[in-house]
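Sharing a chain and its predicted structure for anyone who wants a worked example. Both blocks are below, sequence first, tokens second.
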Amino acid sequence: MLIRLFIILIILSVSACKENGSEQSATSTLTETQEYSSSTEIQGQTAAGLKGTDDNANGIRDDIDQLIEQKFSYTPSVKRAAEQEARALQQFMEAKTKEAAIKGAEQIARATRCTFKILSDPIRDYEKRQALSKELEAWTTNTKERLSHYLASSQLISGSYFMQQVEPFCD
């Protein structure tokens, strides 16, 4: 008897959600997300070594600059957060000592906190944050050499801990 009552309550609550327009909001969220995770026309730098080319000397490889410009520039603050994360990932990947790797990991954590501050809606902005982090990490480690260095940096900080940064998170 209790199980039947529970099932009826679930069915009623699900049907009530559809009447409140959740179907429409889910569709609009899906459309927004598709805009930010569509494929890109940019060719990644695969022959320029570990650091790649950085013609404007901003600490971000040129191919990743183009990616940010194309996919993560829908607001100036999101663009700055993406650039901060790209610099932090590059710094972490290039680390040769445990101290440098920890500093890079702290910068990644700080950049992630910045992204969460800028894209703060836990539901609407979730997919945008995921796309930003995943794509920047994938593009940063897009060659065997870069991935090997990134994994080596991860091993350097294995077992380490560090404090979370106090504000400000964003550069």
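Comments welcome. The two ends are 59 Å apart (CA to CA).
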